[in-house]
Write a structure and sequence with these properties.
- The protein contains 15 helices and no strands.
- By secondary structure, the chain is mostly helical.
Amino acid sequence: MKKVVISLLSISTVLFFISCGSKPAPEEAEPEAPVVEQQEEEPVVEEEPEAEEIDEEAELAALLEKIENARAAALEAGAEESAPDMLKKVDDYLEQCKANGSLKENADDIIARYELIANLVKAQEAKKEIDDNGFAQYDQKDYDEAEAALAKVMESLDSEGALDASVTDSAKAAYSGYNTVLVITYKKLAKEERELAYAAKKDADSVKAGVSQKERYQAAADSFKNADSLYAMQNAKKAREQYIAAKDEFSALYKEVSERRAAAQAAIDAAKKRVQESEDFAVQADEASPITDENVDGIEAEDAVLLEEDVYEAPEEAEIEIAEDIEDQYIEERETVLVKEEVPVEAETEVEAAPEADAEPVAEEAPLEAEPAESEAALEAEAPVEEALPEEEQEEIEESIQEEE
């Protein structure tokens, strides 16, 4: 019995020690679980705040860009010189909104104030130009409406708080009204100057200024055409300036060429008079002492041409065509372009083929080439008559013309 009890105690003791030795194994796996949980939670916490900050910064940057553009427009209109106090007031308002973080809420109001300044400055500038030149008479209705709109703006400038939309609209209406007066006025004045420039061109053409002063005539015509282009692009003010430039140049050409032609004609008339006096003296001498020999040196033939009229070679080709009415000018230019575009290619081939068809008739008409030889002989026969002009008379005419030039 004792042996059985001892055996049971031994077995239980062994089992106790075995169970105690197997406990440390699960303790080694416990530290790994918390590390995995921390890696999964970190990215989720940091993503959402960063996206919100980026959106807000982008929105503020876009608002600031709009504000800067509105302010630049005010500066371009001349706000620093014409409305420095108003500009500074809005600038201070802008800085205040930046400092207290209310820029987003007040951005539209700030932009409206800068736009108000730009329209107000431009309206006042246009009004001054109209008043200084008395242009209101050309469009009294639009002028009166612009005056009323400007008065409303001036009354609202000292108001505190956000600007009413009607005030900014009134500033735009004031500038638009004054600008309409200027457009209508300069279109009328430009047309009047065009009529004067066209008349001056006709005067210049009458004395063949395009022949004797080709470069200056071309420059004046270019100014005229440039003015027509500006007028078509609704820039009547600049067009009027170009019409005036063309008118002045054409008038100067007419005066100068007329004076030179008059001086040259006077010299020719004086020379003709001296030649006539010489002929009269020769007649008297012939009556007193008749000469039978017809080939006496120094005495011209009875039908000799001593002086010829000043005839230009195709002077009309030097004239530059410009329509009398500006609307007609546009029509002519469009028709010219259409004609150039509609010229068929076959027309050139027909012209080239024409000599082949006429080859035989040209060969038969070859004897006609003798005509130039006959004309040259005739010119040589007449040459001695021209040489018969006294050298003193020729020198006097040339000197008088050179002095006038």
